[in-house]
Amino acid sequence: xxxxxxxxxxxxxxxxxxxxxxxxxxxxxxxxxxxxxxxxxxxxxxxxxxxxxxxxxxxxxxxxxxxxxxxxxxxxxxxxxxxxxxxxxxxxxxxxxxxxxxxxxxxxxxxxxxxxxxxxxxxxxxxxxxxxxxxxxxxxxxxxxxxxxxxxxxxxxxxxxxxxxxxxxxxxxxxxxxxxxxxxxxxxxxxxxxxxxxxxxxxxxxxxxxxxxxxxxxxxxxxxxxxxxxxxxxxxxxxxxxxxxxxxxxxxxxxxxxxxxxxxxxxxxxxxxxxxxxxxxxxxxxxxxxxxxxxxxxxxxxxxxxxxxxxxxxxxxxxxxxxxxxxxxxxxxxxxxxxxxxxxxxxxxxxxxxxxxxxxxxxxxxxxxxxxxxxxxxxxxxxxxxxxxxxxxxxxxxxxxxxxxxxxxxxxxxxxxxxxxxxxxxxxxxxxxxxxxxxxxxxxxxxxxxxxxxxxxxxxxxxxxxxxxxxxxxxxxxxxxxxxxxxxxxxxxxx
Length: 495
Known about the structure:
By secondary structure, the protein is α/β, with parallel strands linked by helices. It has helices at about 1-10, 20-35, 40-55, 60-70, 75-100, 105-120, 145-170, 175-190, 225-235, 260-270, 330-335, 375-380, 405-420, 465-470, 470-495, and strands at about 195-200, 205-210, 240-245, 275-285, 290-295, 315, 360, 365-370, 390-395, 425, 435, 440-445, 450-455, 460.
């Protein structure tokens, strides 16, 4: 029961609740549960913790399955339970391996093994690294560590802090003091390891949120109305440096929308600006379908006309596709079973893993489409020193009024803090927002409203430690600690 409670508590440490100290409490309870347990019992407790963590934390997935999957309620609940059970295997593995390897110095094994299990969760079967512990600290004072260690390091801090609380409970005061000291001293030193700063004039931006109902987004009878709506929302907001529309804001496939796109391209250039929009690119010659971002209007400051033409290079094609939503594994078997496995646009083609930044009105834009923002290594691989803005688009209408969109926005903010670049996030129905990682200030639109966020952001230059080196130094440290701890335990067993 305690393991289940600990897992459920984690949900309230993430957005929209953001009671971040609960992540430490949850980890302290898990440490209590796992203390001196044999590996078989540790695996069971780790699984129960993980099942509750994901069953409650990503319960919003059920919204899309129930509303758009075309399955009976009992089947959709079973699918949700199966997903939570699969994800729970990773904390179960970390708990079991730690119990098997440790005789003493438990924490020195648990932290590296947990990080390894989280890496596996984020890579196996395309990966699903949602709700990793570190995201709970996005809005905490400890977020000063993110530009140095990334969310990866913050996850280790949650484990360390939770273990410190557990040590307080069992009255091992020295271990509790050590844990607290490491976190406090690291937080004090972190700001000195970064060199990011504001530079230049503010950039004026307009984020357009169309609020198109999900069931209408790919209805051909609604295409013209949707395209006209985005055009009308933008008409009074051309007086900016950059206009951004969300994922697949233009519902018509790109090759069929040339007249419309050329018109927007000319209008943007005429108003001395650029516009980035999501669109689906179906290429008849190859049958490839890409979830794409394209730039319309001015590419460079000095341009006098728009630069758009079909298949121009100033575009981004989504690399990390969402299972079931954008591609269906074992599709010959699964597609006939239910509408869930045969959604519109569920046969996308992968883009390249590393692509050039978009160039819009002289700005270098680091893009990520929807699910991709969760993958810190992918976003960092596409980061360049000259990147001006982190830009992500999404369509969270699949998840209704759940906590899923709030968690998605929190994850995007973490990417901005890690890389030290201002964030633009534009979605179909929310959360559409800007975020400044230096000031920590955020501006956003209300969900489920058609609106435009017309505001400005500050350009940030310099590089964070994490942007330069990523996880490499911290993986090296974690693995070194693991090897030393295993060696110490081996010596104890041989005595």
